[in-house]
Hints:
Elements: H1 16-22, H2 29-32, H3 42-48, E1 51-58, H4 68-75, E2 79-86, H5 89-102, E3 109-113, H6 114-123, H7 142-147, E4 158-170, H8 171-176, H9 183-189, H10 194-206, E5 213-215, H11 218-227, H12 246-260, H13 272-280, E6 283-289, H14 292-300, E7 308-312, E8 320-327, H15 335-345, H16 348-358, E9 361-362, H17 371-374, H18 386-394, H19 406-422, H20 427-442
Parallel strand pairs: 1-2, 1-3, 5-6
Antiparallel strand pairs: 3-8, 4-6, 4-7, 4-8, 4-9
Helix pairs in contact: 11-12, 11-19, 12-19, 19-20
Amino acid sequence: xxxxxxxxxxxxxxxxxxxxxxxxxxxxxxxxxxxxxxxxxxxxxxxxxxxxxxxxxxxxxxxxxxxxxxxxxxxxxxxxxxxxxxxxxxxxxxxxxxxxxxxxxxxxxxxxxxxxxxxxxxxxxxxxxxxxxxxxxxxxxxxxxxxxxxxxxxxxxxxxxxxxxxxxxxxxxxxxxxxxxxxxxxxxxxxxxxxxxxxxxxxxxxxxxxxxxxxxxxxxxxxxxxxxxxxxxxxxxxxxxxxxxxxxxxxxxxxxxxxxxxxxxxxxxxxxxxxxxxxxxxxxxxxxxxxxxxxxxxxxxxxxxxxxxxxxxxxxxxxxxxxxxxxxxxxxxxxxxxxxxxxxxxxxxxxxxxxxxxxxxxxxxxxxxxxxxxxxxxxxxxxxxxxxxxxxxxxxxxxxxxxxxxxxxxxxxxxxxxxxxxxxxxxxxxxxxxxxxxxxxxx
Length: 443
C-alpha cells in the first residue's frame, strides 16, 4: 500500500516491483490451489450472467500485482474483477463513510484499515455482510478477526495482512561505526528492549559516519513501542486512556530521549525527505513492520543491495503495526459473489501470493507453512529469512484493544514527536499540544 502519514497505514506501491523480484519464487501451486470451497460462487455465475465486481481499496493491496484478479476470472469466467484505488487511506476513509451514509458509490468489496476497524464495527456494522457465516475465522491469527467482530459475534471484515515487527539496519554504516553486522549479534544487542535500542544508538553516534543518523524517526520508534502492548489508547470498555497508558508513556519518553540525544534524523516516514535520505544512505536503522522492507528497497535503490539486513525487533514482546480487512456492503448488487471473492482472496494460497508480490505478511495462519512464505528470503537484505522472522513474531503478537479513533490519536502524537525532533519543541509543550488536538477529536 502507498504509505500515508496516517500512522496505522502500511505498504507502498513503489516497492511492488522490487519485492516481486526479491522474494524467492513461490510454489506454482499458490495461484492454482482451488478447492471445491473456492468454487462456491460458480453456480450463481452462470445464473446471473457476466458481472463485474469492484474492489474499492487504498494504496496497493497486492491482488492485481499478484495476478489474483486475472486468476479469479479464469476460475469464474463470468466474473470480472476491477479495482477502484484511492492513493491515500486518509482520503479513502472519509469517502467510504460518505458512501455508506448515502448508500451510493460503494464497491462490491471494500477495504478497511486496522486503525479504522473499531469505529466501523461500533457504528457501521449493520451496513456489512456477516462473514462469519462464510469464513472460518479460526484460520486467522486469533486477534485479527477479533478486531473485526462485533459484541454480537458478527464479523464484518476478513483479515488481509498483518505487520509483525523487525529491525532493518544498514550493515555498511554499522561496520563503519564499529558495531556488529551479523543479524543475530544485532538482535542480541537490543534483546533487552527499546532502552537497549537507544543504548545501541549512543554507541553508533560515537563513531557515526559524517552526516548519518542512528534512526530515521523517533515517531516510528514510538509507534513500534506502543504496538507491542495490549493496552494502547483505549481500554476494553471503550474509554480513551491514552493519557494514562503505560505503553504511550514509555514510547513518548523514549522518543523524547532520542530527539534530545540527536539519535534521529527527524524525518517523518514516507515523506519525500525520508525517501531522499534512504537514497543517500544516511539512516542506520528503520523500525520494520513486514511491509517496510519494500519501502526501503524501493527508495534506497539498487546501489544498496546487500548493505541492508533484518534482525529481530528489540525486546521480547512481539508487536504488530498495520493490517487491513476486506468487507462486503449489504447494499451491493452482487453480495454472494462478492462474499465468495473475499473468501478466496483471504485464503492461504492467495495471501502467500500477495506476500510474494509485494511483501505484506499474511494474517491467515495456513499461509505460514507454504513454501512461498516459510522459505522466503530477501536478497536485497543480505538474504534475510523474512518468512521465518515474521512467522515467529506473528505467533506471539498480543491482542491489542482497539478504539474508534486509534489512527487519529497515533497521528496527533506522532506529529508532536516530529516537532520535538525538527523544531526542538520541549516535550511538555509537545504533549500539551497533542492532548489538545486529541481531546478535540474524541470529544
